[in-house]
Design a protein that fits this description.
Number of helices: 3
Number of domains: 2
Structural class: mainly beta
Number of strands: 33
Distance between the termini: 43 Å
Shape: globular
CATH superfamily of the largest domain: YVTN repeat-like/Quinoprotein amine dehydrogenase
Length: 468
């Protein structure tokens, strides 16, 4: 069961109905809605492909560099990430790569500090000790499970204690350098599930080891900083949020960096860790960050003004019309207060009961209906007024054998829902389930974005432009 938690990391989600003007990030404006789009409804790896760009970025690459990050369109450019630490800029019209920049952890230090650190780490073989420590921790985990089954086995207990002694010694050697070691992440998540964000003049990206970087649109790095190393073993996936002149990064704590300089403005500690991305809303005159864990944080000073009002385990909330929607079994809708004091109590409006499962994919809200899908491909349509399920449809036979990682999208006249085997269903929105078309590309776990008659998809091997 623990291994399944890896899937959570691809629930990259923002879900705000109002990223402030000029800001482009996950799902473009955060809603997953493209009302002016005129997308095609049929495609394949050969049909209606305007262009595709292989994400094999470096001459020594034996294979393409994958990623779960969602494309971000800024004017005539598109930004996306690639494992393990690369920000890529392509020309929107033809997919040609304009620039690509790596952001290794070592570059968060000055050149002098970096060289001294590398020399010291090589001298005491930190990488070797770290690898040995992780191996012994895995062995210790297996022994703990055996001891639970045989609690009177003294030989097992002694083996376990010997391992713990070895692990402690290795930790003592490694810990001074731990923030400069590659952070753990599951192979489904990687280090680039986070989507970049832009204000139209700059683009910011966050990478798994805790690296955050800012570039101008021509690829000139403005700053690079170390924010925080993930404590959870599966990595992180919450995309950075831009608001109030700050770049908000949620790894373990919530960190607000000055968007212009990267300097820390505040930290809000003790927030429930989220795989999905927070959203921004206004309560009275205050900009407030709402986390998937149900915490409300005032952006000006980092004060938590409400806690655990609802929760999402993996995906992101939605916000519209003064309401915040947390869509998974047992969660629901809360009403946003009129003013943001130091302690607010958002009012519970309703709870919802879609099929009980994990919701990796974030939902979409359209015309008073909420469309959601769980990992095992059961899709639900809920009434936004009261949370009641209007219809539920098992899409296992329609979405292939993959899991539903990509978030649901509304574009033009249609709803788009995908699984990670590359299958996408085009549906007619409404109070009855109606399939319009079924299409297939390569494997992808990112969320499609739309502009005009074109859809952009970050696949595992290629970046795709589908349309006319």
């Amino acid at each position: 069961m623990r291994s399944r938690i890896l899937a959570a990391a691809v629930c990259v989600a923002l879900g705000s109905s109002g990223i402030f003007a000029g800001t482009v990030g996950w799902r473009t404006d955060g809603t997953g809605r493209y009302p002016d789009a005129k997308p095609v409804t049929e495609w394949s790896t050969e049909k209606n492909v305007v262009w595709k760009t292989e994400m094999k970025l470096w001459p020594d690459s034996s294979k393409a560099h994958w990623s779960n990050s969602t494309p971000v369109i800024v004017g005539d450019r598109l930004f996306v990430c690639a494992e393990p630490d690369t920000l890529v800029c392509v020309k929107l019209s033809d997919g040609s790569i304009l620039w690509k920049k790596r952001n290794p952890l070592i570059e968060t230090l000055s050149p002098e500090e970096g060289e001294a650190l590398k020399a010291k780490m090589q001298e005491i073989d930190v990488a070797g000790k770290y690898g040995q420590m992780r191996k012994l921790e895995s062995q210790a985990g297996r022994l703990r499970r055996q001891i639970r089954k045989s609690p009177n086995d003294e030989a097992l207990k002694k083996q376990y204690q010997d391992l713990r002694t070895q692990i402690s010694a290795l930790k003592e050697a490694v810990n001074p350098f731990i923030n400069h070691m590659p952070s753990p992440a599951h192979n489904v998540n990687g280090h680039t599930s986070m989507t970049p964000v832009s204000d139209g003049r700059h683009v910011w990206a966050h990478f798994g080891p805790g690296v955050v970087a800012c570039y101008d649109l021509d690829g000139n790095r403005k700053w690079i900083k170390f924010a925080e190393r993930p404590r959870q073993g599966y990595g992180t996936s919450a995309s950075p949020v831009l608001a109030g002149g700050k770049l908000l990064v949620h790894v373990n704590d919530m960190t607000a960096l000055d968007a212009a300089t990267g300097e820390v403005q505040w930290k809000s500690r003790g927030l429930r860790h989220s795989w999905g991305t927070s959203l921004v809303t206004k309560i009275g005159d205050a900009e407030v960050l709402v986390t998937p864990g149900g915490d409300f944080v005032r952006i000006a000073d980092g004060k938590r003004i409400a806690r655990s009002v609802s929760k999402l385990d993996y995906c992101a909330p939605l916000i519209e019309g003064g309401r915040i929607y947390y869509i998974q079994n047992g969660s629901g809708c809360v009403k946003v207060p009129d003013a943001a004091g130091d302690n607010i109590k958002p009012e519970r409006v309703w709870r919802c009961t879609p099929k009980k499962d994990r919701y990796y994919s974030s939902p979409v809200l359209r015309d008073g209906l909420i469309y959601a899908i769980n990992r095992n491909r059961t899709m639900s349509c809920l009434d936004a007024k009261d949370g009641k399920v209007i219809w539920e449809q098992n899409l296992s036979g329609k979405l292939g054998r993959g899991q539903a990682y990509p978030s649901i999208t509304s574009a033009g006249d249609y709803i788009f829902v995908s699984s990670d085997d590359g299958t996408t269903l085009v549906l007619q929105p409404g109070r009855e389930f109606k399939e319009i078309a079924r299409n297939k590309l390569e494997t992808f776990r990112s969320t499609p974005v739309f502009k005009g008659s074109r859809m952009y998809v970050r696949g595992y091997k290629h970046l795709w432009c589908v349309g006319k």
